[in-house]
Amino acid sequence: MVAENNIDMIANNLANVSTIGFKRQMMQIESQPLSDVYRWQSDPGSAVATQGTLSSTASQAYVGQLGSGAEIYDTPTNFEQGTIEVTGNDLDFALYGKGFFAVRNAQGIRYTRDGSFVRNPANILTTIDGDAVLDQAGNLIVLPPQGKITSNTAGQLNVDGVPFAKLGVFDVTNPRVVRSNGSNLLLDSGTGNVTPDLTTSLVQGAQEKSNADVVRSIVELIIAQRWFDANTKVIQTEDTATGLAISAVGNTTSGTG
Q: Which domain holds residue 216?
């Protein structure tokens, strides 16, 4: 099951190598708890019990510990910086640093590295999926109907050189609690301690490409598939050995004196 989940995760990374702002996932595996194994048996006694049987004394002997396999410990996201590609679109913004854009949809506030924004019919700055982009104060950004939109590296938006809004860029100081929420969005599933980011640079007219690598993902997928196949063969071998043992015990005959 762990090997199968690992294949699914790598396949998802591979499928998103062209997704803007996508961050690849990793898998951390740990051993399941060990179990203590004892051998229980009855040592024959010398006293004759009822109905002509000998009495016996129960005893146990410690054999050792038995592992029960592996399990998934965590599937953290790798927030390594992706390559920045120039697009020339005034409403495309790339982040260089560890910050996130904040957007609001029907489920609440989410975070993303995808800065491919558009203007909706109400002149509100949104993502391609229609989620409203927030400013540094957590408010919607309403664009003027006309004018040249420019931005500096701090996210200050200007129309024809006149400042009118500031793109919200936020720092998640505990990224381990940030989880994928679909549609290239991230959810703070715990106490991520989100604060305004003052160190991340914003590049207008550019997009941050996915940090998932095609070659690496293909190699990891091949290794994961071989691991899955090896586990399958181990299970089949163990099943065959168990069947032979049961068959041999069932066919055991006692000799006569």
A: 1-34+68-80+209-235
Query: Phi and psi for 212 in degrees, rounded to 5?
Result: -80, 130
Listed in sequence order, the residues at least 6 apart from 128 whose beta carbon sits closer than 8 Å to its beta carbon are 116, 117, 118
Residue type, 245: A
DSSP string, 10-70: HHHHHHTTTSTT---B--EEEEPPPEEEEEEEEEEEEEE-GGGPEEEEEEEEEEEEE---E
The number of distinct structural domains making up the chain is 2
Q: Over its length of 257 residues, how does the chain's per-residue pLDDT go in tens digits? A: 888 899 999 999 999 999 999 999 999 888 888 888 888 776 655 445 555 555 566 677 888 888 888 889 888 889 999 999 999 999 999 999 999 999 999 999 999 999 999 999 999 999 999 999 999 999 999 999 889 999 999 999 999 999 999 999 999 888 777 888 888 898 887 776 788 998 999 999 999 999 999 998 999 999 999 988 988 898 899 888 888 888 877 665 554 44
List C-alpha distances in Å: 119 to 171, 215, 230.
25, 36, 52
95 and 198: one domain? yes
AA identity, residue 22: F
C-alpha distances out from residue 123 to 26, 108, 182, Å: 39, 21, 25
d(CA 254, CA 239): 27
11 plus 22 within the same structural domain: yes
